[in-house]
Amino acid sequence: MNKDELRTIYKKKRALLTDETIGDCSAGIGDKIVSWLSEHPEIRHLHTFLPARNKKEIDTFSIIRRIATDFPVIRIVVPRMAAREPLLSHYLFTENTGTSLNRWGIPEPTGNDTIPARLIDAVLVPMLVCDRQGHRVGYGGGYYDRFLAECRPDTWKIGICCFEPVDKISDPGWHDIRLDACVTPLGFRNFGN
User: Fold this and answer.
1) At 81, is the secondary structure helix, strand, or coil?
2) Per the CB 3.0–4.6 Å rule, which of 42, 70, 113, 136 could disulfide with 130?
């Protein structure tokens, strides 16, 4: 299937998820991320999105809390979307960082401690679904592909999602940045890019 078809299907599937299911998915994904981080002590800056509850995204707030408790040396970085173009800027996120909702209902940090993309060691990437080759379907705005292209080549790009990968996305674009791995409640899959 192509990205547009998958985007339509998985937006509908995600809209049907209950709060309980999202909580269970988030807990399972959090377990796998914590386990992965314990095997990767080199991670010092981890970037994650903040969840848009109106889009039934994974609860990354709960994952952030677990990382802060279990890995106090890791600095959490979160994005803020540019107003007029599909660009992200990146900010340190601590327990004292405030948030406000942007026009799409996505929480964004209100702090001013910017972190350059080159310092980020791993990114938890939002997505609707991915395939077994590491191509992902997002919302179609291109924010994350532009951001991931700014990261170092060795930065881990890890998609997180409630749904298991599909066999193949038929139309990945030349500009699409492949994931290194994805995490679902059922497992951590390394794509070996």
Assistant:
1) strand
2) 136
